Amino acid sequence: MVLSINIGIYFNLYRLNLRHSMAKLTLTFKGHVIDVFHLESDKTQIGRDDDCTIPIDSLAIAPRQAVITKQSDQRYQLQALDEAFPVLVNHEKTAEATLNHGDVIQVGKHTLSFAEDVMDLGAELSQSETAQEIAEATKQDEDDESIARLGVLQIINGDNFGRIIPLNRNMTRIGHAGGDCAMIARREGGYFISFLEGPNPPRINQKPIGDEARLLTDGDIIDVGGTQMQFHD
């Protein structure tokens, strides 16, 4: 089944004309996109100092926490610079790593998602990337302030690790048709998840939700049919 995640409006990424052939890093905080940085130079510095290529204004970030160097073979090498401020790649602490498409770098409470060529964080996924229907969402005409208030899901396992799904509909279906499915409803009191169909109910923080709708809280880990996602509001 063709995966359908229509998130063209998400934080106006396409207005920024992101479809370049160079690698890029998408900076997010609690699932919300802050900025996109194209790796145009041979060295990209990440840190709290204003003169860093990617400055992050947070005390949880070192003045110069990491550097990404473009190698002669066009690969990108990440190096941590300050032992007091760890750098995680795909949730594992690392001193040095060669970056691959889809890798997720964590510095402090911020996340940098690495992408090559025209693949962008939050771009529409094709059938070739996954056989699972992760979510269905439709484009809405909302201003930037409304978009900033949307809840989001970030996939944290599998082939689509790091992908972000904005919950920009009143009802968002998650899962695989004919398999385990859940529904997330956006209500005045927040986002509520409920069991839709399939042999296994969704799990929140490793516990099945049963037949009752469950209010999601920031940071909840959702498991639907083996696909794990983290909720941010």
**SSE order, as H and E?**
EEEEEEEEEEEEHEEEEEEEEEE
Please count the helical segments. 1
Largest sheet at a glance? Answer: 6 strands, antiparallel
Total number of beta strands: 22
- Rg from C-alpha positions? 18 Å
Could you tell me how far the N terminus lies from the C terminus, measured between alpha carbons in angstroms?
29 Å
Strand order of the largest sheet: 2-1-11-10-7-8
Approximately what portion of the residues adopt beta-strand conformation? 35-45%
* Stretches with pLDDT under 50, minimum 5 residues: 1-21, 118-148
Morphology call: elongated
Mean pLDDT: 77
Helix and strand topology:
Blueprint: E1 24-29, E2 32-38, E3 43-47, E4 54-55, E5 66-70, E6 76-80, E7 87-89, E8 92-93, E9 96-99, E10 104-107, E11 110-115, E12 135-136, H1 144-148, E13 152-155, E14 164-166, E15 171-175, E16 181-187, E17 190-197, E18 203-204, E19 207-208, E20 214-215, E21 221-224, E22 227-232
Parallel strand pairs: 3-4
Antiparallel strand pairs: 1-2, 1-11, 3-5, 5-6, 6-9, 7-8, 7-10, 10-11, 12-15, 13-14, 13-22, 15-16, 16-17, 17-20, 18-19, 18-21, 21-22
